[in-house]
Design a protein that fits this description.
19% strand, 638 residues, globular, alpha+beta, single chain
Length: 638
C-alpha cells in the first residue's frame, strides 16, 4: 500500500493544476471492509522497514524550513489608520464609476478575493450581509490541514483527484501559517493504536501525508510508545474496553496547523480595506442590476440603518458560502442547485480534557466518521459531525449530535465525558459542492467549484478554509478573464502577503505587550493577558495595550478569560465591530469558548460599544436582547 501511495504522490507532484468548473462529482466508491483493511495493512508492513530509512532521509530539512520573509505593505505599520465603516458607506453611495470587481460575501473566500483583487491594482467593493466570519468561516474545526481522511479515501478508492486535493491543501497550509503567524501554530495530533495492525496501517498513512506535503511539511510524523504518549496525554485511556480489553500499543503523532478562524477572517477583511477595497459588513444584496442578461451591479441594503444604495461593477463574484444558491436564484429563479449544506457540530470542554499542546484524532467512529479533540485558546474542542442540514445563520447542535460526540470520545479517555462539562456547543454549515447522486456528505469531495453563470456572475463555492487563498486567486483570475480586465490587473501577490498584525509579530512579542501595559493591567504585567493580545492581534497588540494602559480599560471582562475591556473599544475603532454579537463571537471567541462567560460579559460589552458607537437607549436594549438570543444557540440541547 505504501509503495502505491508513493507512486501516486510522485506522479501528482508533476501534474499541472486544473480547476473544477462543474458541480458534478464522480460517485464515491465503497470503502474496504475491516478484513480487507487488515490484509492490506499486513501486506504494507512487509515494505515498511525497507522504506522507512529512505523516507526519513528524504524528509530531512523539511521540519526546519525557515519562515517566509513577508514583504512590506501599506498595512505593515501599526500606525496605519483603517477607513471607518461610515466613511466607506459614504464613498459607496457617491461612487460614480463602476468598480472593477464586486465581491458578495465576506467569509474566508470572499475576503480573500477582496485582498487578492485589491493588491493586483483593481478597484474592489465587498459587501457582507452579516459580519465577517459570521457563517461557516467562524465555525470550523480550527485546523489548517490537508485532510488525513481524504488521503485514506484516495488510496483505498484509487482516486488521484482526492489525493490532488490533499497535495494542494498541504501547500496552502504552509502559506497560511506564514502569512498569519500570530493567529496560527503547528499542532501535534495523536492517533492512538489499540490493535497491532493499526500501527503499520496508520504509520504508512501518515508517512504518505508527509510525502504529499513535501517541502511544505511542518514536522515529520512519528511512532510514540504507549508509555510516552501516556505522559504527554495523561487523559488518554491506556485500555479500551469497548473493543474487548485492548491495551494501547502506541500512537502515531503527526502535525497539522491550527488557527483562530474568525479572527483571521476579520484580519483579511481589514487587510483588504487597507489595500484600497471598499469593505462593508451588515450590508445585504436585495436585487441585481442587469444590462441585457448580464449582471452589472446590485442594490445593497445597510442592515444597521435601513438605507439602500447601488453598487456597479465590471465583474461580480458570488462567494456567499452556504447562501450560494440563494444568491444565484435572486438573479435567476431557474438556477439549479450546486451547493449541498453539511452540518459540523463541535463541543467546547474544559481545558483538563486534553493537554494544551497535543490533540487527538479518532479516525473511525461507529459510523465511519472522524472526531477530533483539540486544545484551542485555553479550552478543548471536540467534533465534528458531518450530515445534511438546512441553511440558517444560527445553526444549533441537536441532542443526537451532542451525544454522538460524547459517545465517540468517551472510550479514549480516563475522565468521564460529561454533558455537564460542556461550556459551549456550536454548529457550522459547510458549503459542499453538490453531487446530485450523493446519499451522504462524509464521502463528498471537498474540492471547490468556480463557474461563470449565464448572467456573467462568477460563482465560487465548496473547498475549505485551508485553501481559501487558492480559491480566491482562481476566482479573481476568472473574474478578470470574464470582464476583460487583463491589462488592468497585475499578478497575484497573496502567496507571501502578511495580513494585518503579521509583519511585526515575533514569538516574544507578548513580553513587549506586558511591559507596554505595565501597571495598566491592574498590577504587575499580566502574562496571560499579554499572550492573548499578542496572539489575537499580532503587532497591533501594542496598540491595544496602550489603550488599556492610558484609558483605564485593562480590566478583564469576566474572570478566568484574558479578554479585556480595551479590546471592545479597539474592535469598534479598527476592526469594523458593529454589534455586541460581532465582539463576543468573532472579535473575541467568548461565545465559542464559554457561553455563560459571554452572557456575563454582555452588559459591559454593550456599555462600551454603546459609548464608542454613540448608541441610544433603545439601540442598547435591542443589542442586549439580540445577543442573548444569539448566545442561546450555543447551549447544549438538553
Amino acid at each position: 500500500m505504501f509503495a502505491r501511495v508513493i507512486s501516486i504522490c510522485l506522479d501528482l507532484r508533476f501534474q499541472p493544476h486544473r480547476t473544477r468548473v462543474s458541480a458534478s462529482h464522480r460517485g464515491a466508491r465503497a470503502g474496504p471492509s475491516p478484513d480487507m483493511a487488515l490484509r492490506r495493512a499486513a501486506r504494507a508492513t512487509a515494505g515498511l522497514t525497507a522504506t522507512a530509512a529512505a523516507t526519513a532521509l528524504a524528509f530531512q530539512g523539511f521540519t526546519n524550513a525557515s519562515d517566509v520573509q513577508l514583504p512590506k505593505d501599506p498595512w505593515s505599520e501599526s500606525s496605519t489608520p483603517l477607513p471607518s465603516r461610515e466613511t466607506t458607506v459614504r464613498a459607496l453611495r457617491r461612487a460614480n464609476e463602476r468598480f472593477d470587481v464586486l465581491v458578495i460575501g465576506g467569509g474566508a473566500t470572499g475576503a480573500g478575493c477582496a485582498v487578492d483583487a485589491a493588491t493586483r491594482g483593481l478597484s474592489v467593493a465587498l459587501v457582507e450581509g452579516e459580519d465577517f466570519g459570521a457563517g461557516t468561516s467562524g465555525r470550523s474545526t480550527k485546523l489548517v490541514h490537508g485532510g488525513v481522511r481524504y488521503l485514506e479515501k484516495a488510496v483505498f478508492q484509487l482516486d488521484p483527484g482526492q489525493l490532488k486535493l490533499v497535495f494542494e491543501a498541504l501547500r496552502e497550509r504552509k502559506t497560511l501559517l506564514n502569512n498569519a503567524p500570530h493567529l496560527t501554530r503547528a499542532l501535534p495530533i495523536a492517533t492512538p493504536c489499540y490493535q497491532w495492525w493499526e500501527v503499520p496501517y496508520y504509520w504508512a498513512g501518515m508517512k504518505a501525508y508527509d510525502l504529499v506535503a513535501g517541502t511544505q511539511g511542518l514536522t515529520m510524523s512519528r511512532f510514540t510508545r504507549a508509555g510516552t504518549i501516556g505522559e504527554l496525554f495523561p487523559q488518554l485511556a491506556q485500555m479500551r474496553t469497548d473493543i474487548g480489553e485492548k491495551s494501547m500499543k502506541g500512537a502515531i503523532v503527526y502535525y497539522d496547523g491550527q488557527f483562530d478562524d474568525a479572527r483571521l477572517n476579520v484580519a483579511l477583511a481589514c487587510t483588504a480595506a487597507h489595500a484600497g477595497a471598499a469593505v462593508v459588513n451588515h450590508t445585504r444584496v436585495v436585487k441585481f442590476h442587469k444590462e441585457g442578461k448580464r449582471v452589472v451591479g446590485v442594490r445593497a441594503r445597510d442592515v444597521l440603518t435601513g438605507g439602500e444604495y447601488d453598487i456597479y461593477a465590471k465583474a461580480v463574484i458570488n462567494a456567499s458560502g452556504p447562501f450560494t444558491d440563494e444568491l444565484r436564484r435572486l438573479s435567476n429563479e431557474e438556477a439549479a442547485e450546486i451547493m449541498m449544506p453539511s452540518a459540523g457540530v463541535h463541543l467546547t470542554l474544559p481545558a483538563y480534557y486534553c493537554p494544551n499542546d497535543l490533540g487527538l484524532i479518532i479516525p473511525k467512529t461507529k459510523d465511519g466518521r472522524v472526531v477530533f479533540m483539540l486544545p484551542w485558546l485555553g479550552a478543548c474542542i471536540a467534533g465534528t459531525t458531518d450530515s445534511k442540514c438546512d441553511v440558517t445563520m444560527t445553526p444549533s447542535p441537536t441532542k443526537d449530535e451532542v451525544e454522538f460526540i460524547l459517545e465517540s470520545i468517551a472510550p479514549y479517555l480516563k475522565v468521564d465525558a460529561r454533558r455537564s462539562d460542556i461550556l459551549s456547543a456550536w454548529s457550522g454549515i459547510r458549503p459542499l459542492a453538490a453531487d446530485p447522486g450523493a446519499k451522504n456528505t462524509e464521502n463528498m469531495s471537498r474540492d471547490h467549484v468556480i463557474a461563470v453563470e449565464k448572467d456573467g456572475m462568477v460563482t465560487v463555492t465548496g473547498g475549505k478554509w485551508t485553501t481559501y487563498r487558492r480559491m480566491a486567486e482562481e476566482a479573481v483570475d476568472k473574474a478578470i478573464q470574464t470582464a476583460g480586465l487583463t491589462e488592468e490587473a497585475g499578478k497575484c501577490r497573496t502567496h507571501t502577503m502578511g495580513v494585518v498584525g503579521a509583519h511585526g509579530y515575533t514569538n516574544d512579542l507578548f513580553v513587549k505587550v506586558a511591559q507596554r501595559g505595565g501597571s495598566g493591567f491592574g498590577g504587575p504585567p499580566d502574562e496571560t493577558v499579554a499572550k492573548h493580545l499578542a496572539h489575537s492581534y499580532g503587532d497591533r497588540a501594542l496598540v491595544v495595550a496602550d489603550l488599556a494602559a492610558y484609558s483605564h480599560l485593562s480590566k478583564r471582562l469576566v474572570p478566568n478569560h484574558p479578554v479585556i475591556e480595551a479590546e471592545v473599544v479597539y474592535a469598534a475603532r479598527a476592526e469594523y465591530c458593529q454589534t455586541a454579537t460581532d465582539f463576543l463571537a468573532r472579535r473575541t471567541r467568548l461565545a465559542f469558548l464559554d457561553v455563560d462567560a459571554a452572557e456575563r460579559a454582555l452588559p459591559r460589552v454593550v456599555a462600551l460599544l454603546g459609548a464608542e458607537l454613540k448608541w441610544g437607549y433603545m439601540r442598547r436594549r435591542r443589542e442586549l436582547a439580540q445577543a442573548k438570543t444569539f448566545l442561546s444557540t450555543f447551549k447544549a440541547t438538553s
